[in-house]
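In this notebook, the sequence line spells out the residues, with the fold written below as integer tokens. This is how one looks.
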Amino acid sequence: MARANRHHLPGYVWHITHRCHKKEFLLKFEKDKNRWMKWLFEAKKRFGLAVLNYAVTSNHIHLLVIDGKENVIPKSMQLIAGRTGREYNLRKSRKGAFWEDRYHATAVNTDDHLIRCLAYIDLNMVRAGVVQHPSEWMHGGYNEIQNPKQRYSLINRQVLSGLLGVKDDAQLRESHRQWVEEILKNGSNKRDAKWSESIAAGDKEFVSEVKTKLGAKAIGRKSVEDNGDYELREFQIPYNPLFTPEKCALRSENSFFWDLYY
């Protein structure tokens, strides 16, 4: 079942990633990608989830949302992941986990970092070498932003436009197209771990703010700068050298290394 990765603060934009169990290609068929999108629409309808962008690949998903009401994201992810996995297992007469234990959530600053994260999601399948342009991938938000659906739309264009500071739908489409084309042109479409492995990504003030609000949950997390970008990184530590065999499977959040902090 999809459980939150401990990092949720109201009022923030979050980039969520969730992988299939053992990185298996459980979403490789179009019907399974469509079912995930169907349940995303249902979460939008039931809970008011504000979707800004998304991409469904064969073994993981990307979802960009803004956290408004309390518990909207956890409830939405529980619905989407739970129903998608259950339907797949029933159809395939399969048992066992469909998803990795937890989804990961990264808080994204609503400045140019939001623009870059938006395009990063659009360009996922281009980076993977599956398509040459995001318009060729039917299970992502690029085409919906460029050509709005009349029914069953997933992306909240009004909220997205407000966060990006664009005045109308035409400017949203044109700006979005230009951002993606510029990345394709300059060859900067490379995997960037800060969008899917950090707790927060933005400028120095934003990352410091997130760390402060997380309080005790941010113990052991480091703010790291890279070419003017800042990220609050997860604390990584090798398990096997420190644990006896029966404890080496423990998660880092279930362990506290006193000598590292005091």
About this structure: The radius of gyration is 19 Å. Residues 237-262 have pLDDT under 50 and may be disordered.
